[in-house]
Amino acid sequence: MAKGSLPAIFIDGEAGTTGLGIRQRLEALPGIVLRSIDPERRKDPEAKRALMAEVDLVVLCLPDAASKESAAMAASLGADAPKLLDASTAHRVHPDWVYGVPELAPDQAAKIAAAPRVANPGCYPTGGIALLRPLVAAGLIPADHPITVNAVSGYSGGGKTMIEAYEAGTAPDFELYGLGLEHKHLPELQLYSGLTRRPIFVPSVGNYRQGMLVSIPLHLDVLPGAPRPADLHAALAAYYQGSEWVKVAPATADGKLEPEALNDTNLLELRVYGNEARGQAVLVARLDNLGKGASGAAVQNIGLMLGLTAAAAKAA
Predict the structure, then answer these.
(1) Computed over its alpha carbons, how large is the radius of gyration of the chain?
(2) Neighbours of 231 (CB within 10 A)
(3) Weakest mean pLDDT among 24-38, 92-106, 255-269
(4) pLDDT over 50 at 1, yes or no
(5) Integer Cα distance of 105 and 110 in angstroms
(6) What amino acid positions are annotated as catalytic residues?
């Protein structure tokens, strides 16, 4: 690395849920240096700017507005600017930022590796895009097809206030939210799924800490060629053949699926549940909203951006 014998990383916002998760995973990696601002100077812009100039990569774990400010600060460093990985929603559909899903397309990992600025994906879109993009690309789902995405997450995905409410026992056991149909994950969900029609997205949260299910119901008889559930499974399996972290699994025999089985991993499982006689199917993605949906994905991207061969093994 140009700045030192070992690549140095600064997590801007390391005290939050995602920042803590990234730091914990990175601490298990050999051959890197983690840098932090002196706590007494944490709110000093010049201290942050000086540290940015000394490191190879900055991870932004901040609210959107603060992420934009930090990204602008890094850009002002010119030749000393570090690479950026943004965990907020601020840059996920920005044309100058590469979307941080290595499995998105055959050349996506190479794009991430070469990019100076990468936007880490949202947890819900990670599951939804993984299900939809291969089927849209294969022509099994038209780009303008009306799509509804339903999802449930553990409360750790809701930020500090939600976490405190659930852990204090003052939050409901289950609730729908985002019912104004303007959830901040919608733009990336539509763009990277390849959809021209804006999908309906209905998120929800349950009284458990982490784990996520994303489901998409389909009427097969209105899709081109009336595909069978097996056709959808085959298309997904072909798209992700050889992937380390995305697995296409058979439908569970009992028709049930719980959300916590992949907790503390970077894995993403995709399944197709179908009733061929009724011409219906449900696509389901399961992941850890703190793993492949946040910190695990970040470490996977950091490994690509810094050429760290050990990072992939430690993303989980």
Answers:
(1) 20
(2) 19
(3) 24-38
(4) no
(5) 10
(6) 123
